[in-house]
Amino acid sequence: MAWTWGELDARADAAAAALIDAGVGSGDVVMLHAPNSRDYLSVMFATWRVGGIITPTNAKLTAGELVQLAEVVRPALLIVGAGAEDHATALDATPSWAVSDASGSGATPPRWDGSSTNTSALECPMPR
To answer: Cα dihedral sign for 76, 82, 87, 93?
Structure first.
């Protein structure tokens, strides 16, 4: 099934509105643990629209591996695909959604204008 750019734009706006409603904003990390899909793209574009940092993961990671990654990136929100609910449970201290929850209210959110940048999440050293 194909999408037009307008359809992707509308879905990304709806998902961005949901992210804003959840308190996600500039510099916040959104961890996305789902197989590639149309919703995956919507969440990625939505995160960028609100000024967030998307951390896509390999959908084949175990719950334990996802926990280790989350300890490094400290996501404000975890979004999981269908069948990965146990992964969300493993990160019980991190708010989480199923991919379908990111569809939002349909209201067009304000777009990030790039005026403020929180780069602290990018400046942490990688563990060895």
So the answer is: positive
